[in-house]
Design brief:
Chain lengths: 393, 56
């Protein structure tokens, strides 16, 4: 079977759905493919997202939100903790989402804007004409399907293939990926008010443990560890260890695993007829692992640029340059900074982490943003943070 | 050869993202290994549940 449209979006996560919605709103004929039979399921996410930042992109529906939090509490390996208020805690703190509902909601918005949504439909390669991509070949419920389109938007996640098919090397080195495991836990020990972060090379080497509350003593308790410090099954093993020490009576209602790119911005996210969005474009924050908002922002840009390129008739890499320029102007610098922080963070010993967090103990940081806190940290620990001095301005 | 224990695998796709030869594919609820696999073992390290193994 075959069909034709103006743009094919591969992957109906937040990035793909926003791209499809933006392109459909601009008048394009859009096909949004999701390889799974259910959009948003299984979840591969800790579900934290910034309240204000999300609201700037889309009007949050009440059913998308499992819980609202007051802020973030960060624990040093020795148990010392600091608290940051919600509006300063960065892109991952504020709301804890129900991704199964959220992802489906965004796909619905794309559908209502006019996009054709096809589930259980997996892209298996790019169609090419004279060497240039001109759509995707897919498997739809076990039957082959060709979809001709001048533009393909690859929003196909951490396991992205679209970029590699188009000649963009998105392979992640082990030092640039966090491997994660998470349980949905009910326990009286859950803090319903705060997103909690636990640091330490013993509990989560090169990453951190999180507890993101979802209301009424329920929380996503999970961890990410750096791929280069992982071994087979290590993420799950460490999570079970953490559960024993912190939530010994916790009951596990769901198990989630996944991986986050933490490579920072890659060299190119476009090729002739192709744009990459979200985790597929490695637009995930390398320090926090947060990628919902950046995927949505980039998705919107990709959808808008697709509309321009289709109407101008220039879908070459050069014709899609506006996408590359705009997403880098919006989030490129902060992702690059975050990458430097991550490269530094993963080298810290537990003693370093204790010293850094301990040094903030007597400071009034509750109202500070990340940058302000960094400035204070630098003032108190100049020797330890000397490498980062160019980032402290 | 690379084996996938499908009773352990939680089909998250972490292995697909690190495969240097693009030999793995996440098909909904299972991992497919293509003939291009060089048995380098990188994917086994990243697997959060330990479902992958290079067997002699």
């Amino acid at each position: 079977m075959s069909m034709k449209c103006d743009v094919v979006v591969v992957g109906a996560g937040p990035g793909g759905s926003m791209a499809a919605k933006a392109a459909a709103q601009a008048g394009l004929r859009v096909t949004l493919l999701e390889k799974r039979q259910e959009i948003g399921d299984p979840v591969r996410c800790a579900e934290g997202v910034g309240k204000r930042a999300l609201s700037q992109i889309v009007k949050p529906e009440p059913e998308w939100i499992a819980a609202e939090v007051k802020g973030a509490r960060i624990y040093a390996p020795d148990g010392t903790s600091i608290v940051m208020s919600e509006d300063k805690g960065g892109a991952e703190v504020g709301y804890v989402l129900e991704r199964k509902v959220f992802d489906r909601g965004l796909a619905m918005e794309a559908a209502r804007a006019g996009a054709k949504v096809m589930v259980k439909t997996r892209a298996i390669g790019l169609l090419k004409k004279d060497g240039a991509p001109c759509g995707v070949s897919a498997m739809r419920i076990g039957e082959p399907l060709e979809i001709e389109a001048p533009i393909v938007i690859g929003a196909d996640g951490v396991e992205s293939k679209v970029g590699r098919w188009a000649g963009i090397d998105t392979t992640l080195k082990l030092k640039d990926i966090e491997t994660c495991a998470q349980f949905l836990v009910t326990d009286t020990r859950v803090d319903d008010q705060y997103c909690e972060f636990f640091l330490g090379n013993g509990i989560a080497p090169g990453g951190y443990v999180w507890s993101f509350p979802k209301g009424e003593k329920l929380a996503n308790v999970g961890l990410g560890i750096l791929g280069s410090r992982s071994k087979p099954g290590e993420a799950t093993r460490l999570l079970k260890e953490f559960m024993k020490s912190h939530f010994p009576n916790g009951k596990v209602l769901e198990m989630v695993v996944g991986a986050d790119p933490c490579s920072g911005p890659i060299e190119s996210t476009t090729a002739d007829g192709v744009m990459l969005v979200g985790d597929a474009a490695r637009q995930t924050d390398p320090l926090t692992g947060g990628g919902i908002l950046t995927a949505m922002q980039s998705g919107i840009i990709a959808g808008e640029v697709a509309a321009k390129a289709v109407s101008s008739g220039d879908v070459s890499k050069e014709g899609l340059k506006e996408y590359e320029d705009r997403w880098r102007a919006d989030i490129g610098k902060s992702l690059a900074r975050s990458y430097e922080f991550k490269e530094f963070f993963v080298k810290l010993t537990d003693e370093d982490l204790n010293q850094l967090i301990g040094s903030l103990n007597k400071e009034d940081i509750a109202k500070m943003d990340l940058r302000g806190m960094l400035r204070v940290l630098f003032r108190l620990n100049p020797r330890l943070l000397w490498e980062l001095r160019h980032l402290v301005v | 050869m690379l084996t996938v224990n499908r009773y352990k695998c939680c089909y998250c796709g972490a292995c697909v993202g690190v495969c240097p030869t693009c030999s793995l594919e996440l098909v909904e609820t299972f991992i497919e290994v293509s003939a291009d696999c060089k048995e380098c073992g990188i994917c086994t390290k990243i697997c959060p549940v330990g479902a992958l193994e290079v067997k002699a």
